[in-house]
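Hello,

Following up on my earlier ticket. Below are the four sequence lines again, exactly as submitted.
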Amino acid sequence: MNRHDPSGVLKTTAASLALVDHILELEGATMSELVEATDLAKSTVHAHLKTLAEYGYVVNIDNEYQLGAKFCHLGDYVRTRKDYYRVAQETVSWLDSESSMDADFAVEEHGRIVSLYGDLEFANSPRFLIDGSPFHVHTTSSGKAIIAEYPETRVRDIIDRWGLPAATDASITTEDELFAELATVREQGYAENSGEAVEGFWAIGKAVKSPRGEVYGSLNLSGPAYVIDEETRATQAELLERAAERFEQGIAELYQTPAGETDEE
Amino acid sequence: MNRHDPSGVLKTTAASLALVDHILELEGATMSELVEATDLAKSTVHAHLKTLAEYGYVVNIDNEYQLGAKFCHLGDYVRTRKDYYRVAQETVSWLDSESSMDADFAVEEHGRIVSLYGDLEFANSPRFLIDGSPFHVHTTSSGKAIIAEYPETRVRDIIDRWGLPAATDASITTEDELFAELATVREQGYAENSGEAVEGFWAIGKAVKSPRGEVYGSLNLSGPAYVIDEETRATQAELLERAAERFEQGIAELYQTPAGETDEE
DNA sequence: TATAAATGTTCGACTCTCCGGAACAGCCTG
DNA sequence: CAGGCTGTTCCGGAGAGTCGAACATTTATA
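Thanks for your patience. The regenerated structure is below:
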C-alpha cells in the first residue's frame, strides 16, 4: 500500500479500507492472512471485519473473507449516475461488434484508470493489478490517451502521487519517456500500448471530450499482440476514430434535447 | 439507517460507511447535506470524506461528493470472482434475447437482494431503494424465489434482521403472508411480483441451484405490469423455466471438466 | 481417540485518536 | 461589501480503538 500522505486521514477507517484492499489483492483471504498482512492484533482485525460485514462490504464463505455483492450494487450506481453512461455503453457495444478486438471505455479518477464499460473478465481483473487499485495511467493506452489531454501540471501531480512503477519490461518508467510519448499521442490522435501493462497485450485508446473540451474518458480496443501488423493497426485505429465521433455526436445530441427527459415522472 | 445490533462494530468505520450510504441515498451530496444527515461536526465529516477520497471511494465534483469509480472496479471483481459468473452471464443474455422483458440474475447476501447481471439502469437504481442497501427479499420476485428454498430458520433470521417494511401498497408485510407466499412459490416453481417493490412493475423469478442443492441465486424477468395477461404470464414462466435448465446444465458442465482450467500458469 | 492448529468471539484496561467547536481562507451570489 | 457556502487547520478532552490473553469450535494431523 503506497498511500502517500496520511495527514488528516482517520486511521480506523483507513485500516478498514486497507483490509478491503488486502482482500482484493489476495483474491479472498483468511483471518490469519489478514493479520499477517496488516500487522494488527487478531481481535482488531476481527472488529474491522465485523464492521465491514455489517455493512455488506465483506462476506465470509468457508473460512475465507471475500468482498460482498454490495460492491456490485454501488458500482452499478456509479456507472448509471454518469450522464454520459448510455452514450458510452452504446458506443462500446457498437465498437465491440465492429471490431475483432475487445472494446471498452475507461475513465481516470484519482490518477488511476478504471474501466467502466467493457468485458468484465479483462478490464478490471485483479490478476493484472499491482496493488488493490486500478491500472496506472502510464501503463495503459486509455491512461495515456486521457492524460495527453491534460495540462502538464496535472500530469505531474499524478506522477508525484503514484510514481511510474513498471508493470512489465516494456513499461514507461521515466518522466521524459512519458512526456515524449504523450506528444506522440497528441500527434497521431490516439495512444498505443504494446505490452506495457500486461505481457503480450496490445491496445489503442482515444480520448473523448465534451464540446467544451472536458475529457470524459477513453475508448479502447485491445487484444493479443501477436495478431498485430501494420494493416490491422491501421484498421483498428480507423474504427476507434469513428467510434469517438459517434460518442461525441451522441453527447451533443444528449445536450441539445431539452425535451424528452427521463428524470421526472 | 436501521442497523440492528451495533455491538462490536467500530464506530469510526461505521460512520465512514454510513456516509457512503448517505451519498448513495441522496444521489450525491454536499458537505452541509451530509453534516445534517449524520449529525456530526463539519470537521468530522471532512475527515471522513478525506479518508474515503484518499482510498478512491469518494470523489468531489462541483462541490458535490459522489461515489468513486473504484466501486466499479471492486464490483467487477466481485462479479468475475464467482465461479458461476460466465454461466449466469450467458443465461441472462440468452433470456434477454428470447424474452420481450428485461432479464437479470440476482443473489441474496446478508439478507438483501443484489442484481449481478442484467440491465444496469433498472436493477440497482437507487431511485427504487429505500435506504442505501439493495432490495429486501420479501419485495422482489428474486428474493422470494431464493428464500423459498431456504430452511425456515434462515428465513426468520432475515426477517428478524431487516423486518418486512412495505415498499408499495402491494408489499407483503406480515410473516404469515410471506410464508404462505413462499409455499405458493414452491408449488408453482417460480415467484411472482406484482408491484410489490415498484408501483406498476411486474416480475417473475426462479431460483437456480447447484447439483448439491445450494442456491446460487435467481433468474428473473421483469417489465411494466400493464402488458401482463394470462398468456404472456404463461409464456414468460415457460421461458424462465428453460433458462433455469440452461443455467443448471451449464453449471454441471463447468464441474465435470477437470481439464482446461485457467487457474494456474 | 487424542493432539494440534486453525478460526470466531469475548473481556478489560491502557492509551491513542477521533470528535467537536471555533476560526480562517476561498469562492460564489446578492 | 456583506452573506452565503465549501474546504481546511488547530487543539483539548473524552470517548473509542487497540492489544493481549483466554475460551469455544471446528478441522486436520498423529
